[in-house]
Amino acid sequence: MQIHQEECRGCIEKCSVYCPTKAIFKDDDVAKIDRDLCVECYNCYRVPCCPYDCFEPEELEWPRSFRRAMSDPITVDNRTGVSGRGTAEMKTNDVTGRIKYGHFGLGVELGRPGVGTSMRDVEKVCIALAPYISFEPKNPVTYVMKDIKTGKLREDILGEFVLSAIVEGDVAIDKLEVVMAALKKVAGEVDTVFSVGLSSRVYPDGSLVFKDQLERLGYTPYLCGKTNVGLAKPAFVEGLR
Amino acid sequence: MTHTLHRTGTPTDQAADYTLMAMATKDANLKGSREKLVGILRICLKHNPINIGDTQQGDMYLLGSAEEVFKRMVDGAIAHAHFDSKDNLINSLKEIREADLGMSVIVTGLFDQIKDCCSQAGLTPHTQALSLGIWGKTDKLPDRKHLDLHTMCGHAMVPVTLIDSVVEKIKAKQLTVEQGAVELTKPCVCGVFNPTRAAEVLRRFV
User: Whole-angstrom Cα distance, residue A185 to residue A183?
Assistant: First the structure.
């Protein structure tokens, strides 16, 4: 993102409040952007907050374009057809059958809520989970892995700072305990926050595949969450094991 | 993309906070999905949603109206309707089931309430996603009131700085609480920000 300096009147209180990473600052009576902090989310441009239309997107080259893919919710990933920072995960599970009985979907969103994350911290979580998870092949973070067996990311994106990034994949239910332990350990090693989400098929009695194990391990999920109500066609059909 | 998961708030607040999302799947039912997704949102529109949006285009507060959202939607749109009433969600789900449009439909809300909604609408939950909360350097987080507003936009487009700015304008009587809630709703392009609930939380600031 860039601000046309010749048009800017310096009324920074109108635009800076829309920046989730506090990248807009005042210098020489005009608004400027700290490019290290700017995650290219385009919030300032889209709202729009500038009465003089000073904000203008610039051509982004790799790896800066990766910032935008991980930060601007309107960008659509051509490989998944999904906008946002992840995949369709459980949302289309009634068609894809991606999450099956005996398994759960794990989504670890680094930088959320509102803190942002370096890709180096994202790599730490990928490495911690790699022994136990089948990384989702269509996830944008998986795309930038140089080795899905180790979870190591490509060097060219490690210096990037993004609003959030989701490490996502499929885990066998018997790995729940060890995965939670790995996450607990890496939580003390990153310089950001992450939000942890688990997805599961619902049994005919309404219970979740991992409900008992989670309770036994002492984890208490939020009372609020997402439910796919199974209306899609063509429906994926899977028998109970 | 887990943009409606991880919403914080009291059970009382969340009992008036329901998102309905509809989407197609690439390589399965994407072609021709625009009409079906608009159809689902038009059903929702009959049952008093407080927000309508498409992640790829924007919400009704940003674009000006629900019709403007519909006009811009394309195949593969990610359609959202937001409700502050459980009954309105149930009535929408009933009609969507009867319309049989074949899109994936996902609802976000308190699990016990959603279970009841599904039961009343004749639906069987297929898959669920739950949140184990926020881990890591949680000392970087804002306080709970800010978090309850901020996490209503899972893409973090409602920054803490904007919340503070709106609170100051309300205190200075430049905005009413309701107008402030709308200002917070605009940046959330998906249409999953709840202005009714936001107004309630803003009252606790002032």
Answer: 5
Give ipTM to 2 decimals: 0.95
pLDDT digits (tens, 9 = 90+) for A165-223: 999 999 999 999 999 999 999 999 999 999 999 999 998 888 877 777 888 999 999 99
The token duo for B153 is: 């936009």
Question: Which candidate in B132, B139, B149, B194 is best for mutational testing of the A interface (most A CBs within 10 A)?
Answer: B132
Tell me the average confidence (pLDDT) per consecutive run of 10 residues in chain B, 206 residues long. 85 95 92 97 98 92 95 95 97 98 96 95 95 97 96 95 98 98 94 94 94
The predicted pLDDT at position A124 comes to 98
Which ranges in B26-142 belong to alpha helices (H)? 33-45, 60-63, 66-72, 86-99, 111-121
Of A113, A46, A227, A223, nearest to B149 by C-alpha is A113
B-chain CB neighbours of A204 within 8 Å are: 124
CB contact under 8 A, B137 and A192: yes
Instruction: Examine the pLDDT at A25 and tell me if it is beyond 50.
Output: yes
Q: Which residues of A touch B138 (CB under 8 A)?
A: 193
Q: Transcribe B116-135 into DSSP letters.
A: HHHHHHT----EEEEEEEEE
Whether A226 sits inside 8 A of B78 (CB atoms) is: no
> Could you tell me the domains of chain A?
10-58 (3.30.70), 72-216 (3.30.70.260)
User: Which of the residues B30, B34, B135 would you substitute to probe the A interface, choosing the one with the greatest number of A C-beta atoms within 10 Å?
Assistant: B135
Are B126 and A230 in contact (CB < 8 Å)? yes
